[in-house]
Design a protein that fits this description.
single chain; about 85% helix
Length: about 70
């Protein structure tokens, strides 16, 4: 995997998180700073859980239990 590809993946992931937070903040009736912080934390935690589940699935499908254990840990 090239360095350009790795950089573009990171940029796309962060942009997707920002767009999601902005979307939900704009739909709020009461706009407080804390709402943005909480939504940002929720989006980040959800993304981390989803990404970890993907790594675990990849380790599980590879058939290597040690790989699965190190990915989830």
């Amino acid at each position: 995997m090239s360095a350009y590809f790795k950089i573009m993946i990171g940029i796309a992931e962060e942009l997707a998180k920002a767009v999601t937070v902005i979307y939900f903040v704009r739909r709020l009736k009461y706009k407080y700073i804390l709402n943005g912080l909480l939504l940002g934390a929720a989006v980040g935690a959800g993304f981390a859980a989803f990404e970890t589940a993907g790594y675990a699935l990849r380790g599980l499908l590879s058939g290597n239990i040690q790989t699965l254990y190190t990915k989830v840990q």
